[in-house]
């Protein structure tokens, strides 16, 4: 290898498979090559006297692995045969540069490419491999060891095929994977929640190959005993406080109040039975209090000491390779529903923080004390229409992804509405807008609240990341029942939805909430009050078309860090990221940046 000009540029003559002899140049940003013209160079090597119209450069940012492979055949491009695949073959030492091309437009999938170089001298090949590996090791911390869960029945039943497609990418990149194909619902949850801290510390992350539901299981298995934060106030706690603003919906005010207020003025929602439809909940009764924090921000704690792993932390990441029916989390975080692109995000060690909603279900025990049980959601928690769809769709799993269309149509035709009370915490922005008395303040508010779509390197999400140290104190600013910003709605709702992220999907390409951020510490509460059937249809059509779905008087849309919910209906069902959760009383709070994801944000 010769050094040329600047100390950081090197040139060598190598052989490139299916091209011929090339002059290869390594510069600080990438690798380029030029076919050597035999006649003009006077070289006696195995080359041809014409140039190929092929790719002749790859940037290091687009290289995910460099591998020395064994002695073997390299083919040149045979100009006489007219086919690049029937050239002369020569034996030599070889190495492969594995890379990818980013799509030309934002949000398009990345495609793989590889270049096999060869030389008769093994040391030359070795030296190139070493230099290339050094050049491609960027600041990003690439994972070395991952735990992988594959859901074989997800989506159209192609979870295993999806994994087999991307597995070679991991093995080229020398990422160790410990793979479990799930046997039943709850399998991944059980495996992850039962890992000791030491076992968990031996991995850099966990990857789910499936849909949003499998990701939800992985998330819950991880956080169930490792997240330690105060619960949001319960609905009863809020009821005990007197200075909260109350609003009643225009429609059905009297019916809503009559059934929601008990004789003593306190909430009298019926209690749910403890044996509900959420099989995992028994294992999730919060036992996270008092767990000590991992003290380092730079990597896993020393695996020799069994230091407890807790969340948030700076090193552990989750990955999601899409193979599900909806894949809203992947579409909202990588911008494309493509397993190869997601696998590359994981291998390159991309990292972004993700808000997670802590959904606390309150039940009253025989001794009348409130007993919380906790679930976590990364994308969406919804009641009413959303709960009905998920419950209805369970019976039609055999339909695959189409079950959601079918169940959605059935739920829509039933047009059920539910009496409920929702109490949410206004944001400081909303508070400011209420008291803005002069034009200047009001203009400032408008500027600050201008809708900004969340993208890769989103300034709103990054502000937090730069300012924050990963600790529970930052991820959740404690929410008090005494806060004067609680605002209450009672009435009949077609649905109550909480979008933590935009929830982009193929049915609603802009998402349920186009301006939702991945890590801003807020969720978007969408209250759809009871309204005539055609109006609701119009709202759903607007969602699909990407026009403003909140432009209706029967829709309330609020950005909030927390809310509580009480329903008067015994059979109340929530859809928490695709999981059925039966609950009449719920508190939800956003834990800012609680989880790191192997992604860099959508490039939309
Ligand atoms: N081997 C299995 N057999 C049956 N159910 C499983 C199995 N493994 C996981 N599950 C459960 O199946 C549910 C749905 O899984 P997943 O999200 O992967 O697929 P999907 O429903 O097709 O996709 P999406 O959630 O994107 O709509 C999850 O809640 C998970 O708990």
From TrEMBL:
One of its GO terms (biological process) is ceramide metabolic process. It comes from the Eukaryota. It holds the Pfam family CERK_C. Residues 141-363 form the DAGKc domain. PROSITE patterns: DAGK. Gene3D superfamilies: 2.60.200.40, Probable inorganic polyphosphate/atp-NAD kinase, domain 1. SUPFAM superfamilies: NAD kinase/diacylglycerol kinase-like. One of its GO terms (molecular function) is ceramide kinase activity. GO terms for cellular component: membrane. PANTHER family: CERAMIDE KINASE, SPHINGOSINE KINASE. This is (wild Malaysian banana) hypothetical protein. It comes from Musa acuminata subsp. malaccensis (Wild banana).
